[in-house]
Design brief:
By secondary structure, this protein is an alpha/beta fold. The strands form five sheets. It has a seven-stranded parallel sheet, sandwiched between helices. The protein is globular and about 80 Å long. About 0% of the residues have low confidence.
């Protein structure tokens, strides 16, 4: 180790263990910088790719502090992960690191035995590894002495922090942490570990919560990496799986798919091709997933076909190949998945896209080109997370038996995800929950109401502990009422009536009607010979920047060496079809006898906002997807459209209460949260609008000034 290394600040016991037990001859740059910041007492967001040394960058300085100043009979550090699989994956590694300096770690989640939990409560380990949901179970358990366990808590490490920020799970995480921190007088240090994101400073501010510590982003320069990308087009899922099998033979590979259905179909078709094939997604049992990870880890001619469950930092050993069916919806996911390869010295990070139709080819090219430019999505932030606020009110009433609204506000108002909710709005929510019998007040204290107990109290409040619902399923039916199967809500959300078609049961279907109240999709058989518009490619709500990149690719003539011949052919055909229109000045609008087609390439949320605004202003029928707004009805001319767009561009239009109210009234009644029924009507509509709409982005698209 160099004389100037932060290594010299570690206690001798840790220094010896790192050199002798682990065989380290030096620390990586991210470990040097992060260790110095953490030892200096700063909150930090640490950025590095998969296998980039983030875990050691956080755990070494944490152990240094726990060795130099031992904890008095409680937990000194918490390592939080978004999923149990990541905890299980890190259990042995962090167990080695703690044991080598004479400390202990304990993994607490739903699979840990009651006996082991009882032993931990009696004699706590210095490092607790858990998930936010399991941490809340500890808070709500009468057998867990939270005040004693966390009295001297020093530091919290949050792995894959980008998977939390801007989501309901992130709001839940910080809410639970604020409640845990009431057990200590320490200003608990916060460290987030993440892959590259577009707005790390914002994530750092979010992570800070009530902490007063100085914060820093650790993002050392990354050496240039060798990367290899290929994009190929296949006429069917059968051909796609066959092509992947040829490239996977004799290698270790991960094959990412965008849905569980495609995962199963691809895996089935790859079996019997001369390699071991495993399946890994959230519906596969824990035992099966663990067995797949273990067998794969020690194999050399194997492929795991998976959903995003293996996108996070679960270690399945050195990989040769990453495959992608169609394309993910973000550059971040693409880079995270590619980063599973190229970890050995001299190895090349790689991804091979196997696409089913032209839109997937175009999306893959856009992802690759944005990544080449160094662009990555910013993680969204939120300040009005209503459903988690409801959950926390119920959870606190259960934790304390009865609790004052003042105490709830005092703790929850520190959470950034509730920062935009005022005290009068909070009081209004509490009053509503009392009226609807979700809460009951006596003597100025709130307890759980009968309605909440009926809904969430089954199996000892298991429904309350499990904060996030299982995927909502929609029945798919023919006009005669025949059931064809089911689709998950995130798939249904992006289907466009009379435009989208998809494969189910090996046949192509066109969407006729979506009923969100009844959770059903009515379809008719797609015309013979017509390829489904989405094929087996799951439509996603794509972001503005990605869609704009897709537009620019169509408008230009640049060739991409990583495309196969079929991909180049379909890209050329799309360019010939739309390129001239997209290169013209002004809006890209096509007009024919049936409808106007405005090719915005603005993404799903902007286009849906435009859809509802135009339906309100023009009285027209409007359908929207990520790229297109189609308008039909009486008076649907380009001149009339421009008139309405001019009104939308006027100052104050998008901020006006009349606009917001009229558009939100048109939003379908999605069920986004199991706690939605406890919200006021206004909060429920606002929540759904936040999921589906983008006011500021739409204002920019129509030329309005955004304050």
């Amino acid at each position: 180790m160099s004389a100037t290394s932060v290594f010299g600040r570690f206690p001798p016991r840790l220094q010896e263990a790192i050199v002798v037990r682990l065989g380290f001859s030096s620390l990586r740059p991210v470990q040097e910088l992060a260790s110095a910041a953490i030892l200096d007492g700063k909150n930090a967001v640490v950025l590095a790719p998969t296998a980039g040394g983030k875990t050691e960058a956080s755990i070494f300085p944490t152990l240094a502090q726990l060795v130099e100043r031992p904890v008095d009979g409680g937990v000194g550090a918490i390592y939080l992960a978004p999923i149990k699989a990541l905890l299980n994956n890190q259990e042995e590694r962090l167990g080695t690191y703690t044991e080598m300096v004479g400390l202990r770690r304990f993994v607490w989640h739903g699979d840990a035995s009651p006996a082991s939990k009882k032993r931990f409560v009696k004699e706590p380990a210095e490092l607790l590894m858990t998930t936010p949901e399991s941490l809340e179970v500890m808070l709500l358990s009468s057998t867990v002495p939270v005040a004693r366990l966390f009295a001297d808590l020093r530091i919290i490490i949050i792995d894959e922090v980008h998977a939390f920020a801007g989501t309901d799970r992130g709001a839940h995480l910080l809410s639970v942490l604020e409640r845990v921190l009431r057990a200590t007088t320490n200003d608990v240090q916060r460290v987030g570990l993440s892959a590259t994101v577009g707005n790390p400073e914002e994530i750092l501010r979010w992570l800070r919560g009530s902490s007063k510590r100085e914060g820093v982003v650790i993002d050392p320069p990354k050496p240039p990496a060798n990367r290899e990308v290929h994009v190929s087009l296949h006429p069917s899922l059968v051909d796609l799986a066959k092509g992947a099998s040829q490239h996977a033979l004799g290698k270790k590979s991960l094959f990412f798919c965008q849905s569980r259905a495609i995962t199963e179909s691809v895996a089935e078709r790859m079996r019997g091709q001369g390699m071991d094939v495993y399946v890994h997604h959230s519906s596969v049992s824990l035992e099966e997933r663990r067995a797949a990870e273990e067998r794969f880890h020690h194999g050399s001619n194997a492929c795991i076909v998976c959903t995003s469950t293996l996108e996070l930092g679960i270690d399945v050993g050195d990989l040769d190949r990453v495959f992608q069916a169609n394309a993910p919806s973000t550059v971040s996911s693409f880079l995270q998945r590619m980063g599973r390869t190229g970890r050995r010295a001299g190895a090349t990070a790689n991804t091979r896209f196997f696409c089913e139709q032209p839109d997937a080819v175009l999306q893959a090219v856009a992802l690759v080109e944005l990544a080449r430019e160094g662009w990555v999505e910013a993680v969204p932030v939120q300040t009005r997370c209503w459903p988690v606020l409801v959950h926390q009110l119920l959870a606190m009433s259960l934790q304390f038996g009865a609790v004052s609204a003042e105490r709830c506000w005092e703790q929850l108002s520190m959470v950034p995800d509730f920062a935009g909710i005022s005290r009068p709005e909070f009081d209004g929510l509490v009053a509503h929950m009392k009226r609807e019998d979700f809460l009951f007040e006596a003597g100025g204290l709130l307890s759980m109401g009968m309605k909440a107990e009926r809904i969430f109290g089954k199996k000892n409040f298991l429904e309350l502990y499990a904060v996030f619902s299982s995927p909502v399923l929609y029945r798919v039916q023919t006009p005669t009422g025949r059931d064809l199967g089911s689709l998950e809500q995130d798939f249904v959300d992006s289907l466009v009536v009379e435009m989208s078609s998809f494969l189910l049961g090996g046949r192509a279907w066109t969407v006729e009607h979506v009923d969100h109240k009844d959770r059903s999709v009515r379809v008719r058989e797609a015309p013979r010979g017509k390829k489904p518009s989405w094929g087996g490619f799951v439509p996603q709500m794509l972001g503005f920047d990605l869609c704009q990149k897709m537009r620019s690719i169509l408008a230009e003539s640049r060739e991409y060496a990583y495309l196969d011949e079929e991909s180049r052919t379909v890209l050329a055909a799309r360019r010939e079809d739309l390129g001239p229109l997209l290169r013209c000045a002004g809006r890209a609008i096509q007009s024919d006898a049936d409808a106007l087609r405005w090719w915005t390439f603005a993404g799903g949320r902007v286009n849906h906002t435009l859809k509802y605004a135009l339906e309100w202003l023009g009285g027209w029928k409007v359908v929207a997807d990520n790229f297109l707004v189609r308008i039909e009805g009486d008076g649907a001319t380009q001149g009339a459209l421009e008139t309405h767009l001019a009104r939308m561009a006027a100052p104050g239009f998008w901020e006006a209460e009349e606009t917001r109210r009229a558009i939100l009234a048109k939003v379908p009644e999605y069920r986004l949260s199991k706690f939605q029924s406890a919200l006021t009507d206004a909060a429920a509509v606002e929540m759904i609008g936040g999921y589906l709409l983008d006011w500021r982005g739409t204002a920019r698209v129509v030329g309005a000034r955004v304050g």
